Amino acid sequence: MTGVPLVDFLVVAGLLFAIGLWTALRRTNAIMILMGIELMLNAVNLNLVAFSRYMPGDAMRGMVFALFVLTVAAAEAAVGLAIIILVVRRRGVVDVNKVNLLRG
Amino acid sequence: MDWPLVVFVALAVGILFGAYRVATAQVVTHAALYLAFVLSLVAGMFYLLQADFVAAVQLLVYAGGVMTVIIFAIMLSELSEIRAQAPQNVLQRLMSPYFGILPLLVGLLVFAVIMVAVLRVPWPVAPQAAPADTVTLIGNGLFQTYALPFEVASVLLLGAMVGAIVLTRREGSDR
After folding, report:
1. Could you tell me the fold of the domain covering B1-84?
2. I need a surface site. Which of A33, B1, B93, B140 has the fewest CB within 10 A?
């Protein structure tokens, strides 16, 4: 059977989350920031599915939770990218540092 | 030969390399393609965990739907900002405070905190007995135990769809 301990999945997911956070923080392109957020959500999903496979108890709980995360991520991507396209159309920039209308 | 471990290591290396390239690629389109690569490999990881339904949904929704939307957004946004910026050398990039060393430090700090928490717990080494049919299991769960969150999620999706359409509609085009 599977010779992979649960810790390995957790370490990989932790690294993926850190890289996603790094992406979201170091980029100024709004689309790239959304991509970093997608990476972080995937890391969380990986954790949830791994837990549902390894921990005793109801096997479907983690998978159902992962499906909900996926749903919310899809909704977030749709609305987020719609806002980005709106900003591009109004102001002509994707760079979040140039969208400073509300900066005091 | 421990095949699951071999597959796991291959998937993990692919995922982390792809994610690193998402973080560092100069051209936004390249980063998007690496993101699609990472999302497909995460689906492989789900399959390795014998969550075949979640793997299929991951491929359909993420590698199919979300990636299409992201690539559309890239195509609809300003050309000059999509093109590669003037290449900086690594040292120069690391030294710029907001986009170089600081995000890396924050990422490493979060990873360190997660690892400190994770490595204190004696996690199980062997998985539970594999469920025979995950689709039936998830279907029953969605319509019995989690019926209310399921309906709320459907309302959320509807709201997001209508919101996206309303946001991107051009003014004056509603004849």
Report:
1. Four Helix Bundle (Hemerythrin (Met), subunit A) (1.20.120)
2. B1
